[in-house]
Amino acid sequence: MNPITNTDYVTILPELVLAAFGLIVMLVEPFVTKGGSRKPLGYLACLGALASLAATWYQAGSPYTQGFFKMVLVDHFSVFFHVVIALVLFVALLGSLDYVERQHIRAGEFYALMLFGAVGMDLMSSATELVLIFIALEISSISTYILAGMRRRVAISAEASLKYFLLGSFATGFFLYGVSLMFGATGTTSILAIGPQLHAGGFNPLVFAAVALMFVGLGFKIASAPFHVWTPDVYEGAPAPVVAFMSTAPKAAAFAVLLRVLFAAWTPGWFWPVWISAALSMTLGNIGALRQTNIKRMLAYSSIAHAGYLLVAFAASKAADTAGISAAIFYTAAYAAMNVGAFLVISHLAGEGERFVAIDDYAGLSRRQPAVAASLALLLLSLIGIPATGGFFAKFYVFSAALQANLVGLTILGLINSGIAAYYYLRVIVVMYMREHPAEHEHGHGAERITIPEGVALTLSVLATLYLGIMPNRVLQLAIEAAKDLLR
Question: Residue limits of the NADH:quinone oxidoreductase/Mrp antiporter transmembrane domain (predicted)?
């Protein structure tokens, strides 16, 4: 067995940086003056997110590097997802600085858990060993379980954390059983070795059971139907900045794992489960969102629907071509940009105790805070898929790949669901711009202007959404390179 070298540590450099900053935040917190501002801890966590982005940039200089006995792989694929996770983490942390103080949340624990959760997500996207993926999945999950219940004095937050923990642990058990069956069928848990073993060993029914069980576990993490039941309650109860983070970064990492398992390992028998889950997710997600009056629950059902659109790209990649895979990768980045921004607006407007999260609370927002209303309107239009936004090209690439793969029925269903989604997104815009705000709320809601950290975070989300909608070619090219490395 070869000794561990410096190259091995370079393959996990972003994870090491994030873990180090998480420990520093925890060590520094006791020295912060009691009763003083905890924002310096948040700025330190933001610096950690930027440092992990710099570490990823350094990794990109030596693509396709393996480390730790070929369990970790640095390629264009892992670098792409590392960048997405680092940017989402930075924006979510920046947007939570004022929220944490307003909601009286333990700042040291909050920021450290955000950093530690990102460690697991980064490792999920670069791991090529199923057991290591399971460990990374647990690191990510445990952090988000606790983050969901950080509003300790609020019963709905504790309920969200408990539901998320119980159902998440159950789903993780499915994934672990799938890993054990895959080992029984192939004699290995290395993704890079599973494909050759499957082709050499011929048909083995255990492989189909293994793929199904792993898909159940990962389907929970990406909130796809029929594994979506936890999503509305958890999104409603968890702190808004946490939802901004957990609705994007963990999903990106889980989709990265799913791409590696399905395509890098060339596992069979996944097409129809993915097809059915895509159809159910789009339909149930959009229909469920129609009846919601709470904006967090509405975006929770929207998140389920977008998981369905992403799975359409998976289904379109049944021949393992780069078109569908690159479309899925691009969609992940676009969805992260627009969704994290939408939840940061909710975080800003929710008020102490998150009292103002009903859609009607947004009435007259265009007159009270025109810049915030315009930003939210743009992000919602992107979620619909309006041209000149990242959401438009994300859906365009997904449905184009589906048509190239002759998935006409799934494409039509996706377009119909996009039309349904336009109703509930536009309803929020109508409330903001065409309804007067109730007089009794004038002194309790919307009086505070957006702070500089919140404004910077929201601006970054809006600019990223516009960039992906106006000049998508560069990011799409990176997604294509990532897809080629995945299939190498």
Answer: 127-420
